[in-house]
Amino acid sequence: MTRDILLQIGQVITVIALAPLLQGVILQWEERVQRAQGPGTFQPYRDLWKLFHKQGVVPETASFIYWIAPIVAFTCMLTVPILIPVLTDFPLPQSDMGDILGGGLILTLGSFLITLAGLDSGSAYGGIGSSRAVMLAILAEPTLILVFVGITLLAKAMLPFVVNHLLVQQPAIYWSPAHLFLVAAFFILLLVETDRLPVHSSTHIEVYMIDEARILEYSGPLLALLKWASMMKQFILYTIFSNVLLLPWGLSRQGTAVGALAAAAALFGKFLIVALTVVFVETAQSRLRYYRYQEPLATSFLLAILAIVANQLR
Amino acid sequence: MVGHLLAVILLAPLLAVLGCLLLHRPRFVEFLNLAAALIAFLAVLRLLPLALAGPYLFWHAYLIVDALGAWVLLSVSSVYLLASIYAIGYMRSTGEDQRLYRFYALFAGFALTTLTGPLMNNIGVYWIAIELTTLVSTFLVCFELGRESVEAAWKYIVIVSGGISLALLGIVFYYWGGSFVLGATYDLTWSTLRQVAPQINPTIGLMAFLLVLIGFGTKVGLAPMHTWLPDAHSEGPAPVSAMLSGALLNTAMIGIARFIQVSDAAQLGTLPRTVVVAIGAFSLFVAALFITRQTGIKRLMAYSSVEHMGVMALGFGFGGPLGIAGALYHMLGHSLNKPLMFFGAGNAMHAFHSKRISRIHNVLSRMPISGLLWLAGAVAITGAPPFGLFPSELTILRAGLTGPYTWAVFVMLILLIVIFVGFLNHFRVMYFGNRTNLVLASAPALKKTLSLWCVVPMWMALVPLLLLGLWWPQTFSHYFAAIASQLASTVSSP
Amino acid sequence: MLAAQLDPLAASLFSLMAIASLLLSFVMLGSRWLTDYLVAFAVQSWLIAFLSAAVGYYGHYPELYLIAILTALFRGILLPYLILKIIKRQDVDREVHERLSPSACMVLGALLVLFAFVVSSHLGKSLGLTGTVAVLAMTVMLSMKLIGFLMLVVRSEALSQILGLLVLENGIFLGSQILVPGMPLLIELVILFDLLVVVACFGVLIRYLVAHAGTSSAYDLRRLVG
């Protein structure tokens, strides 16, 4: 029992500790693919350290939302790893607090508060960023729900652990069109939610920013919390993608310490594969105009519907 | 004997096509086409009484000669003959001597594909014949290479190809339904399908019937799939419009009639016939609307075709000996009347250099004889006595009153009256309307009188039409009774 | 009935190819560039040819191998080549006038797939064939037809309309391979050659369109009304 609790805490710590590493790897590889030097794989850690040691500057027009948004976002990101299979493939204590849909909603809660914070201080760029982010969410959330519905119909259960077991035990379902389409749909959503091309501009020009424009008013430790929260969101989405859908193998069965460490290493290995794909996709594309963001999301919607239809015909 | 006649009917246009392609002299190709049309017509006349003796199968049951097919062949070949005679005069006046051989090659080819349609026993091959008619006639429609004719040809081929692909889907469904009973490989002929129809799953049978109805209905020109018809019929040269209207629509209609027979054998209830009747009534409605507000003469004739196809669909939908007799008589009458109208329209276009009704006025001053014939044809085509379309429409109305579709009878009656008024109003304006001298002065005078080639076919169409209206031959009644019993289509009891 | 007695591996192979063909028709629906459509169509034709060969293998219909080779040759190589020549000859290479944006088309296409699915599952239930690949084949066939018609409605470029018609034919062909593999050889061959003739006719017509109407887009063909 205590072992399980320790494993659960270990899951959360894994997420906290390794999230900046994932971000660093992705950024480094992007630069490397474009034959630049790159900032170094551990740069996000250094950034967080720097930000925690800086003084925060608070705008005069900020309200209590300004203060609670980073904290709530960070807390949400701490909560979700409890619900999903990060290290083990059996449910740990309190993992039935929420199912797939619940996990998705908690992630959205954090995003929602940051959007409010962007509006809170009354700056123009914050407003633009928030409205764009919400617009993107309007397009992406229904597709995300539909993907979750597809996953649920596939496994006939709403818990990610059941899906994981199903895919491991029955290769026929793994290779069925329903599952493959769900993987493709989720991949597109992954790109959109983690703010990668073709949806995001990697320049620092404020006019193009979507998610980053919301946090322009933040500095110091609050900024560090926000950045960490977004890195953890990326890590969590990758975890759901890898451990639940794409590569459900390599999770600890018995929950021993060695198994947990090996699972963490395997997790990171899976992330490297996914990150490589994301880097390729991002390098091969250029940014779409804003009104064309509906196109990849419509494709994702379409794939989710095809997955549901294919599942019914299985 | 029947086999020989069949060979003659099919070979005559084929040889005409080859002859036109090999030798390019204009006068020669004209007469080659005319000869082929005459030979085919005479052969069909000879075939007609022989076909009554029962379906003949040829070529491993790929070709069938039965009474219904022979009747459609009669309509088709008479239009072919009339149009060939008219085409000589019309095409000479367009001055297209360089490309004339292409026109006649396409024309004879079109006639060939239209003649083969009713003879096809295998349903898949029937579909291919219909597809071929579309392809050949497209190039005839855009023969006068102008902006509007190319647009019309494009619309024609896209809409009709899309429509008949639906018919192919329906045929595949029929084949699939039959494969549960007859095994995976078998020849889908009309008789096989009729025999196996009761055992096909009713859902498949219904879906397949609706698909072929819509698919072949596109080809026939029933509303709401008629949108290609006004364009294609108005932009082609007049003889081509006559063939399209008088011949091609019948070839597709025979498919629908045979499929109605199949669905009756399958006993799917009243829904199939109700849909046919509803589509027929809707075609009449659309035609009535567009006829009253029409501005071009050939488009007017085209919508009149939609109307008459609607009437025929109603006839086949009502069913029973009366309904089928009415529809078949109507088919022949329409095949005589519609070319007459298109010939008149072609003559008027040449006399007044315009297709628009507003530019045509005082017709009798420029075309005295053919103008009179045209006017008589207009009275005939709206279904007035003493011409041939009146008894057939009356028969169809009677057939409808005996069945469960009396609502359709009243709709048909009202719409026929509306069409009568609307159609003849245009003619009143053209013949007897008052125009200012300004408009008269602007239209250039006729350079030469209409050639005899353009007027004789109008006589040849009008006289039989008058005869058909005055006297319904007893032999035709026997013929229709035989066809009706072959179709064995009785109105399903309510 | 072949589709009812397939072993699971064959059934999943057929379903994979059918769904991949459907996906390719969505790629056609969602792309603006004419060469993209054409490549998707060519790949789809190859997939269907491969499906034909697989049906021939599992169902013991040796004549289907011939059909498969001819399909790959004509629909997979010759038709795309002819259409590519037409594209190169005209200077329009993408959809200029969009009646409906590609993403809206794709969502509409997804709804059509759902409709086709409902119809096919109803039909399958009444036939007792639920749970076999027959229902999937019918869904894919009907949805490819509906998507083909959607392309005809929404697209205004002449070439897109040709490709829409060809997608219609592809859909019927796919369905007929799975549902009625025993269809007589003659019919299948003639339909195949018929397609060739159709595309040749379309090629000539497009040339006329460009020469006499000055455009290859149906958007500009507005003279005939009423």
Q: What Rg of chain C, in angstroms, do the CA atoms define?
A: 18 Å
Could you report the average pLDDT of chain B, rounded to the nearest whole number? Answer: 88
N to C succession of SSEs of chain C: HHHHHHH
Could you tell me which chain pair has the largest interface and how many residues each side has? B-C, 52 and 48 residues
Report the β-strand fraction of chain B as a percent range: under 5%
> Based on CA inertia axes, which overall geometry of chain B fits?
globular
Q: In order across it, which strands form the biggest sheet of chain B? A: 1-2
Helical percentage of chain C:
over 70%
Tell me which oligomeric state these chains represent.
heterotrimer
How many DSSP-defined strands of chain C? 0
C-alpha termini separation of chain C: 49 Å
What is the domain total for the residues of chain B? Answer: 1
Largest sheet of chain B: 2 strands, antiparallel
Strand content of chain C: under 5%
Task: Put the structure in a nutshell.
The complex is a heterotrimer of chains A (314), B (494) and C (226). Chain A is an all-alpha fold and 314 residues long.
Write the layout of secondary structure elements.
The complex is a heterotrimer of chains A (314), B (494) and C (226).
Chain A: H1 2-33, H2 43-52, H3 64-83, H4 100-120, H5 124-155, H6 160-169, H7 171-174, H8 177-193, H9 220-246, H10 257-284, H11 294-312
Helix pairs in contact in A: 1-3, 1-9, 1-10, 2-9, 3-4, 3-9, 4-5, 5-8, 5-11, 6-9, 8-9, 8-11, 9-10
Chain B: H1 2-22, H2 26-51, E1 56-58, E2 63-65, H3 67-94, H4 100-116, H5 123-141, H6 147-182, H7 190-196, H8 202-220, H9 229-235, H10 238-266, H11 271-292, H12 297-318, H13 320-352, H14 363-366, H15 368-381, H16 389-401, H17 406-432, H18 437-442, H19 452-470, H20 474-487
Antiparallel strand pairs in B: 1-2
Chain C: H1 8-30, H2 34-59, H3 63-89, H4 102-127, H5 133-154, H6 158-179, H7 185-213
Helix pairs in contact in C: 1-2, 1-5, 2-3, 2-6, 3-7, 4-5, 5-6, 6-7
Structure description:
The complex is a heterotrimer of chains A (314), B (494) and C (226). Chain A is mainly α. Chain A has helices spanning 2-33, 43-52, 64-83, 100-120, 124-155, 160-169, 171-174, 177-193, 220-246, 257-284, 294-312. Chain A has one domain (2-312). In chain A, helix 1 packs across helix 3 (64-83) and helix 6 packs parallel to helix 9 (220-246). The longest helix of chain A has 32 residues, at 2-33. Chain B has one domain (2-487). Chain B has helices at residues 2-22, 26-51, 67-94, 100-116, 123-141, 147-182, 190-196, 202-220, 229-235, 238-266, 271-292, 297-318, 320-352, 363-366, 368-381, 389-401, 406-432, 437-442, 452-470, 474-487, and strands at 56-58, 63-65. The radius of gyration of chain B is 22 Å and the shape is globular. Chain B starts with a helix and ends in a 7-residue tail after the last helix. Chain C is an all-alpha fold and 226 residues long. Chains in contact: A-C, B-C. Chains B and C meet through helix 5, helix 6, helix 8 and helix 9 of B and helix 4, helix 5, helix 6 and helix 7 of C.
